[in-house]
Amino acid sequence: MDMNQYLEVFIEESREHLQNVNDQLMRFEKNTDDLGYVNEIFRSAHTLKGMSATMGFNDLAQLTHKMENVLDGVRNHQLDVHTEVLDALFESVDALEIMVQSISEGGDGQLDVKLLVQKLQRIVAEEPVAQHAASSIEYDELVQTLLSQTADQGFNAFEITVQLERTCLLKAARAYMVFDVLEQAGDVIKSAPTVQDIEQEKFESSFIVILVTNESQEKLQASIMEVSEVESVKIAAVPVKKETEMEELVSPEVAAAIQEVTVSAPSKSPVEEKRQPSNNKTIRVNIDRLDSLMNLFEELVIDRGRLEQISKELNNSELDETVERMSRISGDLQTIILNMRMVPVETVFNRFPRMVRQLSKDLGKQIELQIVGADTELDRTVIDEIGDPLVHLLRNAVDHGIEMPQARLENGKNEKGTIRLKAYHSGNHVFIDLEDDGAGINREKVLQKALNRGIIDGKTAETLTDKQVYELIFASGFSTAEQISDVSGRGVGLDVVKNTIESLGGSVTIDSNEGYGSRFSIQLPLTLSIISALLVQMSEERYALPLSSIIETAIVQPKEVMHVHGQKVIDFRGAIIPLLDLKELFTVPNSVQGDHYSVVIVKKGEKTAGLIVDSFIGQQEIVLKSLGHYLPGVFAISGATILGDGQVALIIDCNALIK
């Protein structure tokens, strides 16, 4: 059988199981008395082992098998949970992730893990895990009555104990094969452990079955031993009372239950019968297919705009109604497609607990990472980009925001620091807040550094608010080794974080209280593919401004415009903001100044500016298209869109205009 067709599913499910192991290990480390976490880890590890063995990735299967031995010892109270055990399990997960990554990149998934395997074996050897035999089977009233009835009909009853090899990797699969052999010979009355537990591999390496059959003991023995990885089989005849002897002992409840039991051999194995029909109505869809669907819908949006334009020009009522209905339907379709592309931020947040654990351990700190709102959803294109900025902010918080335990105690704090990562929706945006209760930002040191680097002058420094001072750490001049020790460790590479967030159409702000901690707040658009925009006219050209950047529009009279240091400014709600003439910035030909200014007020973080245009066309949903490789890095232009009349409108990057 060609396994390549299942490779993609294997990789996807392996990553899910490894993530679950990671999450449960983190929880178990905080509460080692709760073995429910261990059972969950064991189930995921066992499933991964089975899939790996089936796919032929033996290194992965063997390492997972060694992990299982340790986990089995823990859940059976044979191993004490200590740092070495947890570290070895975490290290095993790291190795498994490397193997799966290798497989996803076309590799063979092999990795030299001899030292790790030896570590796991040493842990088990120090406190041996007892291999428990299967529980003794209980012959309750119902079972005894059934056996007596079958005996009167001439059937034999056997108690069969099956011992699998200790090295067996797929115990449930082998048990299934044994049950299949038994069902061909007769009827399985009962098993220990239960069929459900056997299916879920909640047994060591042996199980007991009561079988009613016409076959001989010798033939049953030979048939079962033909199953691979069966070490031994013990078959004993069950002494059965006659039905007449049982009648006096049978309760009414059991008698009623017996009437519902059919003694004939079942057509399916008990494992199959116990399986519940799946209610899972989800399917896996390759992301490339969703991208193709999105591209096709983007073309539909463009054609929808064209139809709306034609409908207005022709003024035909029937066409108007049809176009209006099409617009409603395509709007609903747009919502469905965008929702299909939404991914919970959990896919990004999941890797952070392990990272924080390792960093805090390396630095000798005690840090708790709290995650809130991990189910908040974002478009996949945004999700793909925010991982690195968040990693950088978290590393700074761990390395330089949170103080050493002794320093925290001296300042009257709990020796364990807290970092809180929170995601939530607000309007058409998602906010991600990263807050710590560490040292905070020293305003004076930031100002001094900015002055030394020439980022600001002395006169400007005197006028800055606290928030404006904190914004200075995003300047590239702060990305130096000296900054790590001087400014509470903040600022290393934060200019890259800011640029990445803004390239996504988002923004990042800082708030801090020296001695008590800092908060970074990131605002992101829900999606980058289809956005709401304000279309504006400049001479014969049209441009689009994303609504996410716009505060409001205004009509400004020439007398209201002032000049400060050669820059046009206006008084906007008590604040002096600069005016930027887009016709001058983009060298729009045939531009003529009217008797008033049409101004779009835009905002970037805490900064505001007014953009002068000729006129406002109106709000419209547009499809953002890249300018491609031939027009990279065009100033203040983030892309283009095709309008309803087929013309192209450039999309203005408001963030690039505000310095």
Could you walk me through the main structural features you see in this protein, from its secondary elements to its overall organization?
There is one protein chain. The protein is of the alpha+beta class and 659 residues long. Helices cover 45% and strands 23% of the residues. The strands form 5 sheets. Strands 14-18-19-17-16-15 form a 6-stranded mixed sheet. Strands 6-8-9-11-10 form a 5-stranded mixed sheet. Strands 20-12-13-22-21 form a 5-stranded mixed sheet. The protein is elongated. The chain starts with 6 loop residues before the first helix and ends with a helix. Mean pLDDT is 82; it is low at 128-134, 246-250, 260-278 and 479-492.
Keywords:
659 residues, alpha+beta, six-stranded mixed sheet, five-stranded mixed sheet, 23% strand
